[in-house]
């Protein structure tokens, strides 16, 4: 491992030209090269001993072709955004079996991508991944960009984190990563209690990640830091006793011994004015221990929405029931996925009005007279999307005859229950 990047060493404040923001106090940085070296060694030794065997790690370690390796890491990183490792494994294996290369993915249809993604949530991720794969094939001759900077610049949907992960894990570029797990670990290691979602804190954490990353094993180091956050330095009850970097952890020191230890810049730290300390209005709470860190500004409440949805049912030609599904528009929430005919409802609409509105919607759509009273209320189903608290008011309507649908309206088809589950439908619709 090489030396720490020089920007982890705070400069004396007096030397700064007017208008330059002051660097954070040394207490919040890693300023001792020997400590950085020790932390890297301890973390990597732990990772080698305890890491989870995961299919994308195996591919990253064994695939000799750099483009295929980068593609394998990229797919895993996109799937892992907002989704648990345990859920991703199956999806990942199926995806890599079906589309082992960028070229294979570029040739897939969006429908196939949506079908495989169904149930994983945040559906635009699959679509964006495929669009970017097409771009690599058509505009970059199938060659993945070779640095984090180029990955971020050239690939749609690849942000700073994903670019850093692909470049460090696939190419060995010594560049750090900051995701939710890394934020938690670094904030605890250095008692950073200012709002961890604020750009000022996030910038500092990137600086710190770049300074800490091991120069000879950057991919392993980054994965180790994330793994530590996922398995040891977890949000609610971290396992500090088993932590390989506990001797470097100021939150733990503070928990055990009170106020943080030798603070060279004590005047600026903990008494207001420090950009990385908790706000003076939210002092250290000893009942929380190390989970005082990180801190986030209060989350915005999710938007509340109601949607009437109707399960239209008919007897199929073999006597088995069939259900009508329609395709959502190609942009916006759940773009391109299939659902039962649905209608967003105004807030506070009475039951009777809801039913009438849905009947009108179905009538306009099927061209059949639909009587509101024939719609049978089943129950309400709640589904929480990341930012929407959605209630589906579910009705059913059995049909005797056949219905000819206006093909000029959104695409639609009749499916059996089995076909429904194999279609590109959201988890919310499966609940319905
Ligand atoms: Fe996290 Fe505890 Fe380790 Fe500190 S000692 S990094 S709080 S697990």
From TrEMBL:
Residues 79-231 form the HhH-GPD domain. CDD domains: ENDO3c, NUDIX_DNA_Glycosylase_C-MutY. Residues 1-19 have a biased composition (Low complexity). InterPro entries: DNA_glycosylase (IPR011257), Endonuclease-III-like_CS2 (IPR004036), Endonuclease3_FeS-loop_motif (IPR003651), HhH-GPD_domain (IPR003265), HhH_base_excis_C (IPR023170), HhH_motif (IPR000445), MIG/MutY (IPR044298), MutY_C (IPR029119). It is found in: Mitochondrion; Nucleus. The keyword Nucleus applies. This is Adenine DNA glycosylase. It comes from Ibidorhyncha struthersii. The gene is Mutyh.
């Amino acid at each position: 491992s090489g030396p720490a990047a020089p920007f982890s060493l705070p400069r004396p404040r007096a030397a700064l030209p007017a208008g330059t923001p002051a660097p954070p106090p040394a207490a919040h940085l890693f300023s001792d090269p020997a400590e950085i070296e020790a932390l890297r060694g301890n973390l990597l030794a732990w990772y080698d001993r305890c890491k989870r065997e995961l299919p994308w790690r195996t591919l990253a370690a064994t695939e000799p072709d750099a483009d295929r390796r980068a593609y394998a890491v990229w797919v895993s990183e996109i799937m892992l955004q907002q989704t648990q490792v345990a859920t991703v494994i199956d999806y990942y294996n199926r995806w890599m079996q079906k589309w082992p290369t960028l070229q294979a993915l570029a040739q897939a249809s969006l429908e196939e991508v949506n079908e495989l993604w169904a149930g994983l949530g945040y559906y635009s991720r699959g679509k964006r991944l495929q669009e970017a794969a097409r771009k690599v094939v058509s505009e970059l001759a199938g060659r993945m960009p070779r640095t984090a900077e180029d990955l971020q610049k050239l690939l749609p949907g690849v942000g700073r984190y994903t670019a850093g992960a692909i470049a460090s894990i696939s190419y060995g570029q010594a560049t750090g990563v900051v995701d939710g797990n890394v934020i938690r670990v670094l904030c605890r290691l250095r008692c950073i209690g200012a709002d961890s979602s604020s750009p000022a804190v996030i910038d500092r954490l990137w600086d710190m990640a770049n300074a800490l990353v091991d120069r000879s094993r950057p991919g392993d180091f980054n994965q180790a830091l994330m793994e530590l956050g996922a398995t040891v330095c977890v949000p609610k009850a971290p396992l500090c006793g088993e932590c390989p970097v506990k001797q470097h952890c100021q939150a733990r020191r503070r928990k055990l011994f009170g106020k943080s230890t030798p603070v060279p810049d004590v005047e600026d730290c903990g008494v207001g004015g420090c950009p990385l300390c908790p706000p003076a209005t939210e002092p250290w709470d000893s009942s929380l221990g190390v989970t005082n860190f990180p801190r986030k500004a209060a989350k915005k409440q999710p938007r509340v929405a109601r949607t009437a949805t109707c399960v239209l049912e008919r007897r199929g030609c073999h006597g088995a029931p069939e259900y009508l599904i329609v395709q959502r528009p190609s942009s916006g929430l759940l773009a391109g996925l299939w659902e039962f005919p649905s209608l967003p409802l105004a807030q506070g609409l009475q039951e009777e009005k809801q039913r009438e509105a849905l009947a009108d919607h179905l009538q306009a759509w099927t061209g059949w007279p639909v009587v509101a009273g024939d719609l049978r209320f089943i129950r309400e189903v709640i589904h929480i999307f990341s930012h929407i608290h959605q209630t589906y008011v579910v009705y059913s309507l059995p049909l005797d005859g056949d219905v000819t649908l206006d093909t000029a309206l959104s695409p639609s088809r009749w499916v059996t229950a089995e076909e429904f589950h194999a279609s590109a439908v959201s988890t919310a619709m499966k609940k319905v």
